[in-house]
Design a protein that fits this description.
It is a single chain. With 432 residues, the protein is of the alpha+beta class. It has 13 helices and 21 strands. The strands form five sheets. An eight-stranded antiparallel β-sheet has the order 16-12-14-13-19-20-18-21, with helices on both faces. A hairpin with a 7-residue loop joins strand 13 and strand 14. It is globular and about 60 Å long. Bound molecules: flavin-adenine dinucleotide. Flavin-adenine dinucleotide binds next to strand 3, helix 3 and strand 10.
Length: 432
């Protein structure tokens, strides 16, 4: 048994870790196994990738490229392949992954199971929109090939299905043309939510990537930095060679606390505001700034941290976000990693996919036990009232009624569940 945690480091639990390394043997390995769940890079924050006391199928050994057609941009690979390795292979050859999240240290299997989104949602949708097909192995030893045109109901259940329909062993991805690794970007400070929404609307047609950092500690909350970017062929520049730093230890208490937050946010906002404007930026710096500080999650100390990511419909988005910021200020809390982003008017194909039209607010909070959970109760009430949902990839404590209200295709999805698969999240929210 090995102790395993997820990115939030809310605890570490004993698991029997079984490594899957040969895609032709996965069916044999799953058949007859005690109930388990696939584990990729463990970059989910809560309990979606955990199964305390049970089996984890570690899929990072399934990391082979199977085929790449440079003319059509079709890439086939095993499900443990890292998005980082795909980007490094394909970008110099004129292609790019159309959708990647804020870290490239995740597996293709994890990207599919959470149907991850990135800064390009309004143009490209989510990860599942760019899949040509996947191979799914069930714990009864059967294998299902599915895709948008082949057994589409199995495909729709598995994309965003939190790993509960089977273990994905292979995927074929349609890449997007790109001129090179550079983006032309613009950073614009904004003073309140109205200005944020104006910038988001104005940027929707002309900018492929948009995101914003919001300072939820400032008085009144709502000021922030809006960032947008487009790929550019630009001139050839030397690629950044910067050495990555590592957070070397777990401090005895969270370094992110009420005292440090105000200072952090004030310095960050003003420094970025001072350097705002246009620039040419390498894709790794623009898309994955957090990957530059390895193991940054240790900053939150031994109790770990929660990430709370909600999504509310656009019509009520401004008021709901304002109300959430108000609750956070009222509770005397704040978040350094606070991201506000609009999703485009696109319907996700996964039955349990998180993205849908609206606005999503993402916040990190150090784990302060009951105090933090009390704040979440108030935030949940706002999300529930707004008809919104919480992202499963980040969740560790959403109540079941909010889950059921937020994911109306749950009953349909459950028909495709693999009975030999179970996670801490599935037991908490589905009861098995
Ligand atoms: C710094 C940071 C930034 C992030 N930014 C974003 C963002 O912008 N947008 C976003 O959407 N997410 C974001 N995330 C969350 C992250 O993208 C997802 O949690 C992703 O699913 C993690 O992939 P993983 O390989 O680590 O999978 P894990 O976390 O190990 O597992 C995630 C889920 O995938 C399932 N799974 C993994 N492999 C397979 C497989 N082969 N077959 C079946 N199921 C499988 C697991 O069972 C689990 O349910 C971010 C995370 C971090 C740490």
């Amino acid at each position: 048994m090995v102790r395993v945690s997820s990115w939030g480091r809310l605890g570490s639990w004993e698991h029997e870790v079984r490594s899957l390394t040969d895609r032709y043997q996965v069916a044999n390995q799953l058949k007859g196994s005690p109930a388990g769940i696939a584990y990729g890079m463990g970059r989910s924050y809560g309990d979606v990738c955990l199964n305390p006391g049970g089996v984890l199928w570690n899929i990072t050994g399934l990391d082979r490229f199977i085929g790449f057609d440079q003319n059509t941009g079709r890439l086939a690979c095993e499900a443990g392949t890292l998005l980082r390795d795909i980007q490094r292979l394909v970008i110099p050859r004129g292609w790019i992954l159309p959708v990647t999240p804020g870290t490239q240290q995740i597996t293709v299997g994890g990207a599919i199971a959470n149907d991850v989104h990135g800064k390009s949602h309004h143009v490209c949708g989510s990860f599942g929109d760019h899949l040509q097909g996947i191979t799914l192995t069930r714990t009864d030893g059967t294998t299902i090939e599915c895709g948008p045109d082949l057994l589409p109901e199995w495909f729709a259940a598995t994309v965003g299905g939190a790993g509960l329909t089977g273990v994905i062993t292979e995927a074929e991805i349609k890449l997007r043309r790109v001129a090179g690794p550079w983006l032309e970007t613009e950073t614009l400070p904004y003073t309140d939510l109205d200005e944020f929404f104006r910038l988001a609307d104005d940027s929707e047609s002309g900018w492929e990537h948009t995101v914003s950092w919001i300072d939820c500690v400032s008085r009144g909350g709502g000021r922030g930095l809006f960032m947008r970017g487009n790929p550019t062929d630009g001139e050839q520049r030397p690629e950044p060679q910067g050495r990555k730093l590592t957070m070397p230890f777990v401090p005895p208490i969270s370094l992110v606390n009420r005292m440090t937050l105000g200072l952090f946010n004030m310095l960050y906002f003003n420094l970025k505001k001072w350097r705002a404007g246009k620039s040419i930026v390498h894709y790794e710096s623009f898309f994955y700034p957090l990957d530059n500080l390895l193991e940054w999650n240790r900053m939150y100390g031994p109790k770990g941290f929660f990430q709370y990511q909600s999504l509310v419909p656009r019509e009520v988005g401004r008021d709901a976000v304002q109300a959430m910021l108000g609750e956070i200020a009222h509770a005397g809390e704040g978040s350094f990693l606070a991201v506000l982003k609009t999703f485009g008017n696109r319907k996700a194909l996964g039955m349990m996919s998180f993205p849908r039209p609206g606005v999503t607010l993402t916040l990190d909070f150090p784990n302060q036990g009951a105090r933090t959970l009390k704040l979440f109760e108030r935030l949940n009430a706002i999300v529930r009232e707004a008809g919104g949902r919480i992202y499963l990839a980040k969740d560790a404590c959403m109540p079941r009624d909010l889950f059921e209200a937020g994911y109306p295709r749950l009953a349909e999805f459950l028909q495709y569940r693999d009975p030999g698969i179970s996670s801490a999240l599935s037991r908490r929210l589905i009861g098995a």
